[in-house]
Amino acid sequence: MRLTTTLAAAAVIAVSGVAANAGGLGDTVTEPTIVMEEVAAPTSSVSSGYIVLGLLAALVAASASF
Predict the structure, then answer these.
(1) pLDDT tens for each residue of the chain, 66 residues long
(2) Is residue 64 classed as helix, strand or coil in its secondary structure?
(3) Whole-angstrom Cα distance, residue 43 to residue 50?
(4) Which of 2, 25, 41, 48 is the most buried if burial means most Cβ atoms within 10 Å?
């Protein structure tokens, strides 16, 4: 009976030791973090507000000439 108890205790210790080191003792390898950076869209040299204002002025000038 004493041999069986000793073997059972040794088996429990062996299994718990393997479970504790299941991942290994080496350093963990992590994937590098990828950072996406937003690039601003190129802007034109003329603002769209000025284009709309110019078209409106051209329409007023064209309608006034009739």
Answers:
(1) 778 888 888 887 777 765 555 566 667 778 888 888 888 777 667 778 888 899 999 988 888 766
(2) helix
(3) 14
(4) 48
Which tokens hold the place of 35?
């950072």
Alpha carbons 60 and 53: distance in angstroms, whole number: 11
Structure-block tokens of residue 44: 């034109």
Q: Measure the CA–CA gap between 8 and 15, rounded to whole angstroms.
A: 11
Helix/strand/coil percentages in the chain, nearest 5: 55, 0, 45
